[in-house]
Each structure stands twice: as structure tokens, then as C-alpha cells.
Structure of Dipeptide epimerase:
Amino acid sequence: MKITKVDIYPIRLPLIKPFVIAYDSYPNMPSIIIKIHTDNGKVGYGESVPDEHVTGESFFSTIALLKNNIIPKVIGLNPFDIEKIHQIMDKTVKNAPAAKAAIDIACYDIMGKASKQPLYNLIGGRYWDYLEIPHVLSIGEAKEMACEAKKAVENGFTTVKVKVGDSDLCKDIDRIVSIRQAVGRKIKLRIDANQGWVNSANALTVLKDIEDCNIDWIEQPILADDIRGHARIRQQIKIPLMIDEGLHGSKEMLEIINTEAADMINIKLMKCGGIYPALKLVHQAKMANMYCQVGSMVESCIASLAGAHLSLAQSNIISNEMVGPLMFSKDLGKTDYQGNKLYLSKSPGLGVEINEEVLSKLAYDVVV
């Protein structure tokens, strides 16, 4: 089996409401969908959701890189030769993980379809029966966030993830305290600053003030490159610490382990380059006795399901954020969310039927 053709579809996924985090606000989510064709008629779908602040790639640079550099190099290769494919992509361009993730995900989709197996069976088998997902709160006014959190709990969610990272630290403290009061003590509360508190002094100011709020963990409180700063924070707080933007690949993972900078890590396919490199991070975490979360860049059903298959197959992935499809008013395929649970199909590959009509309508021409 050989790759014969790769189609590129730049799209913008319509959000139900704007998604606001510490470093940006998104009225819709730009995404790049690819469709790999093979000589035996198998087709696989992949997705790239680059982010200048996280992956170092822009929407337009990723399209150009895929079209002019990466895709020509993978034509003629066997999708099952995933080690070779990643080696060739790495030799073609340094970094660019979100671009490589699109190829990786599509290859795994084809592998599953060719072997007539759901993707999770190729990467560990079914460990979990389903995935429990959190309700994610964008940054807003404390009262509004508290009301939304309370409503989510009433709708059956048992975990709430709170986006913070305001330069006004008092506002973040007010947000977190208000939400905890609104949802009660039993609901799992997770805080994500997305680097917004910048340095350890700011982070410790907030974290010392919310220690009584029964927080599951704090995610990426300070700048991504400051791994040692995370280690200093971890030594001074009782709240478990998770690193997200500070982790891309094995290099950062080794530094995190060696400096004891985190209790947990957040793996994102767009940060590390896809499922194959994500598995390496999972195994590194296992050796260091660290738990993992699989995060999302607010992706369509394609990349969300890729992350979900990974989460379902690995015992030390104890949390996931495959919430993208719930945030869109229109998606490319159907996913099986039942309340706060996501169930995966036993169908081959990613297990989702892509609506080609919706894909065509959302796609638009980009000159690169």
C-alpha cells in the first residue's frame, strides 16, 4: 500500500460562542484537514490546528509547509511505515509539530481501516470503557463563569476546567473562589493559566490564596520555557502541578523529569507531532511514575477522536479534554457524547464518517 495523493482543506470551524484564554480570543477555530489517498483505495483523514503561541506555526505557514515540503516527501510511502514517515518529516523540516500531526493522524486512520480495527487496538487496546470529559470555562467575569459552572454541574458534569491567566491576579482569585462556591466541594476543579501568570512570584500569590479551594491541579501557571520556575512553584504549593505548553517532545520531557518540575503532563497531538510521538511521551511518563492528560487545541471530530483513542488505550492517561466537538455549531462528523462521557466506536480507524458536503462548505481557497 502506498500514499498516492493528499488533499488539503483549510477550514474555519464555527464556535457556539467565542473561546477566550489568557493569550488569545477565538471567534472561530481555524483548522487544516487533510485527506490521504492510497493505491488500494483506502482513505485517511488528518487534522492540523497550529497555534503561533504554542506550536510556533501559523495557519498559513502550515498550509504552505504541508503543500510544498511535507506532502511531496510522503507520496509513495506506506502509511504503516510510521517510524520512517516521521523520520522523513523530521529531516524535511525541524519542529512544525501540528503540520506533522495531520499526516500522522491520517496514517493511523488508514492503518485502522486497512486492518479493520479501531485505532485504539493498534496502540494498546481498550483500557478504559469510556472517557469522562470536563466542562471547560473560557475567561469571563467571575459571576458569569460561576453561573456557567453551576449549570454544567446541573447538566451532569463532575469536572470543571477553569481558564484563567489574567494580569489582574485578584480577578483570577475571585473567579476561582466564586466557581468553587457555586459548584460545591465535591466537583473536581482544575485551573489552567495558559502561561498568563508569567513568573513564579505571581503564580505563588494566586496559588497560596486558593489552597483551600480543593483544586485538582494547576496547569501551566507560568511561561512555557521556565521549567525550573515550575519546579520552584511545585516545591512551595500543595496543589499538584501540570505542564502543558512547556512540553513538546522528549527533550522537554527529560528536563521536566530531571528537575522534578511537574506532577503531571498535558500531551497534545498538535504539540508533539501526532500519535506516534505522543506514545513515546506516555511511556516516558510511565517510567517517571507521572500521570498524563491528553489535551486539545479545540479540534474537530478528527483530531479529537485521535486523542480520544490514545486516551482510551493507555492506563496512565487519567484525564482528557476532547471537548472540541461540543464547542462547535457545525462539525465534520458525529461523535458519541452522552452527558459528560465520550464513547468510541468499534468501527475501523478513527471510527467517524466524515461529511464531505460539510467539509466542502467549510473549506475555502488559500493562496500560499
Remarks:
- The chain is about 40% helix and 20% strand.
- The chain has a mean pLDDT of 97.
- The CA atoms of residues 19 and 26 lie 5 Å apart.
- The radius of gyration is 20 Å.
